[in-house]
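Request: When convenient, would you put together a sequence paired with its C-alpha cells?
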Amino acid sequence: MKLSVPGRATGAAVIAVAALLTTSATADAAPAPMDAAPVRVAAAPDIPVANVKAHLTQLQSIATANGGNRAHGRAGYKASLDYVKAKLDAAGFTTAVQQFTSSGRTGYNLIADWPGGDTNQVVMAGSHLDSVASGAGINDNGSGSAAVLEAALAVSRAQYQPTKHLRFAWWGAEELGLVGSRHHVNNLSAADRAKISGYLNFDMIGSPNPGYFVYDDDPAIEKTFKDFYTGLGIATEIETEGDGRSDHAPFKSAGVPVGGLFTGASNTKSAAQAAKWGGTAGQPFDRCYHSSCDTTSNINDTALDRNSDALAHAVWELSS
C-alpha cells in the first residue's frame, strides 16, 4: 500500500494486452423436472496456505538477491513479475505484460486471462507486486500478490469453467501513487471498462497483528466477503485506513464496481478489536509497514489462510 498519491505514468507503451471478449445474453432456462437434482454452483476450493507461503518465500529470495527490495524500476521487481508470469503461463493462462514509465524508470503490469467465460462480464482480482525501496515487501504486498497467484492456479487445477470471464492482475509502481493500475484503467476504452463487472483488490492480507477489514464499496462484493467471514464466525469491520490508497481507486473512479480485503497497516489495534480478533491492543496491525523488517517473518499465517480462502470464494461466487 502506498503512503500517498504522488507520481504519474508517462511515455506509456503497451507490450501486450489480453483482449476482452464478448458475451451473449443469458437465455431463460426451461423449468427443470420436479424430480431433477438441483443445479449447484461448484464451490471454491480451499487454498493451501503452504502454497501461498511458498510464493512468499520466492519473493523474499528475489528481494534478497536484488538489493533487499522489489521496488519499481529495480531488478527485484522485474524478477518478481517473471516468477509470477512463468507460473501462469505453465498453468494455461493467456498472459500479457503492459509497460509504462514513471520516475524515469520502466514499470510493468502483468495481466492474466483464463480462457472462456462470457466476457462482456469480466471478474478481475488484482494486487500490487512492487515493494517500497526500503524492504522486501512481503506483507505489503507479497501477501496479496501470492494469494491472487495461488487463486489463479487453483482455477487452473480445477479447470474451472465460470459463466463470466476471469482476469487476474499484478500492478507495478503502486507505491509511487497507483501508477500501474491507473495506467491500465486509463488505457482501456469506455466499452472495455464497462465490461468489468467487478474488480477485487488484495493489498496487505497477512498483517502480523491482523484485523479483518472489508471494503464497503460495491454492496454485492462487500456482501460476498462478509458472508464468507460470517460463515467462519468472524466479525469484520469496514476498511477505512487504506480507503482510496490502493489499486481499486482507479477502477472505482472509472465507474467499475470494486471491493477487497485488508488486515491493517500502521494504524493501532484497539482493545475492542483485540478482544474480537486476538492479537495485541495498542500495537500497529503491521509494525513493519514500509520497513526493512517486512520479511517472511512478518506474516500471520491464520490471517493469510483465511483471506486467501475468502479471495477464492469471491472469485468463484462472483464469476459463476
About this structure: Residues 138-158 form the longest helix (21 residues). The chain is about 35% helix and 20% strand. The CA atoms of residues 20 and 119 lie 6 Å apart. Confidence is low (pLDDT under 50) at residues 4-40.
